[in-house]
Amino acid sequence: MYSICKNVIDKKKRYTCPVEVHTQVTMVLGSYLISAILIAIATYLLWHISVFVRKYRKWKAASFKQHIAIVGPIHPIWGSLHLFTDLNSYFKLLGSIVDNERPKVYCAWVMFFFPNFGICHPDSAQILYKSSEPKAISTAGSYKYIKDWIGDGLLVSSGKKWERNRRLLTPAFHFEILKPYVKVYNTVTDIFLNQVKPNAESGEAVDIFPYVTLTTLDTILRCAFSYEGNIQGQGSKHPYVHAVNRLSSLLVSRLLQPWLMHDFVYYNLSSEGREYKKCCDYAHEFSNRIIQKRKKVLIEEGPPTKRHLDFLDILLTAKDKNGIGLSDEDIRAEVDTFMFEGHDTTASAISWAIYSLGKYPREQDIVYKEMSNLLRNNKEISWENLQDMPQLTAFVKESMRMFTPVPMGARQLTSPMTIGDVVIPAGVNVDVNQHMIHHHPDVWQEHEVFKPERFLQNDLTERHPYSFVPFAAGPRNCIGQNFAMNEIKVVIGRLVHRYKVKLVEGHNYDINPELVMRAKHGIKVKLESR
Ligand code: HEM
Asked: Is residue 406 predicted with pLDDT exceeding 70?
């Protein structure tokens, strides 16, 4: 600094005014600063380009030389991005490749800078699901983006932390804990059925997804926190409902806008990013407030005697073999994970099951007959009833096969993985395409035909154990799957018992993968009282 100033002053004539000297120094310093910034940007870009080139070479060697199905033709710069405009068209394109080439592994270059592989057959799914490869959180995609909301909870954590927390959380899904929740599902379903009653009376079509989303959010808030705010009545006027709904939509929106990939751009230069941050802060504050309040009650009064144990009770009291429990931050991350994983996925499964009731009236009649025999004059579904409804269970499973609620997951390989005669290099993302596994023509005959009987007892023995994976499989499978199936069965069973579901003209979608992503754009049905 001293030498810069001295140089400037030396170069000046003796009588230079001090203000002028100051201006000159500032200019020289400014130009140094600009050069430093430009060098930093150039280094950053070069580093990214070199990472990209390395990945691209690996991907190219692994894919082209091994003759696997390629989502192509591949452009040298855009990869396969130019072939589809959104997730719907991506799924459509992939569907036609799987139908024609019947691959077990495919590869695509979905996003700029992110070449990846995908798995679409139970044989290859089995290898990846059984491995302990971590979720793909270091690159673009939903896991990375969602971390700011749900923290390092079960869904995204890995290694020792995931192992320990999974062990501590497993008792929260024991059937003794799940049993009293059936009462909660019935209470929440009562409210849902009353919410749609005016439409049933007037004959007006109802867009089912927003109602169902509130129903599943209400359920998870009651089961996780014993929180009984007027969720379904208030809808988005409830600030937490508003925050969670916005977070879910903003996440999907970011996935479809690769230029918002970088956190700096997203949080500083985009209004969506700023809104995401605001909603995250609110959701965290909401969870923290409830956690701190409950902690105090548990210390002062001990475990609850007048109500069922909820997830929060279990999280707060869980201890590992050294007597160490979860930290406050861990508890918040797990609670937020349940909020996210536990409501949107279930809402999608229920909405598509309702659509399926309308679309397949013959199958709806079979389910209705089973429910009338089972319930007779009872309004509510009991824990015992849940084990005694094969037709409804098969119907729900077939609906989840057809319209897979979580269509894809992704892992990032830490070491090369051999799948059949294909070797996938380390460092690459691998999608597990649950939707394509459910529509692979070598696995599911007439995969586009809705046949719940596929899931009835005598058909099960011949099926590959990894062919039906709506809840994933292996050590990272869905911890909440029994919770979800019970909730879905109560809502669908009671809905069909009370109303006949009919499709609305113009909402009879063709059966194709596009449907999977359509849930949020409206699933309209008509309800007729029985
Ligand atoms: C129909 C409803 C549901 C579906 C289709 C579903 C599906 C899935 C899938 C596919 C995964 C694996 C994700 C991946 O590989 O990245 C998963 C994981 C998970 N799910 Fe679910 N889920 C549902 C409901 C629930 C519910 C109700 C809860 C909680 C109350 C829940 C909690 C979780 C958690 C915590 C994980 C991470 C597990 C781990 O990695 O150890 N899910 N779910």
From this structure: yes
Q: Is 497 within 8 Å of 372 (Cβ atoms)? A: yes
Q: 185 CA to middle of ligand 1, Å?
A: 18
* d(CA 155, ligand 1 centre) in Å: 7
- Which of the four pLDDT bands, split at 50, 70 and 90, describes residue 513? low
Ligand 1: does its nearest atom lie under 6 Å from the Cβ of 526?
A: no
Per-residue pLDDT at 220? 93
Q: Cα separation of 125 and 129, whole Å? A: 6
Tell me the CA–centroid distance for residue 473 and ligand 1, in Å: 10
Ligand 1 near 346 CB (within 6 A): yes
Is 79 strand, coil or helix?
strand
Q: Domain 65-529 has what CATH class?
A: mainly alpha
Is 5 known as a binding-site position?
Answer: no
H/E segment holding residue 109: strand 105-111
Lowest mean pLDDT among 230-239, 453-462, 506-515: 506-515
ipTM of this predicted complex?
0.99
Report CA Rg, the chain: 27
Give the rounded distance of the alpha carbon of 493 from its chain centre. 25
- Assess contact for 286 and 243: CB atoms under 8 A: yes
The three state secondary structure string of 467-525 is CCCCCCCHHHCCCCHHHHHHHHHHHHHHHHHHEEEEECCCCCCCCCHHHHHCHHHCCEE
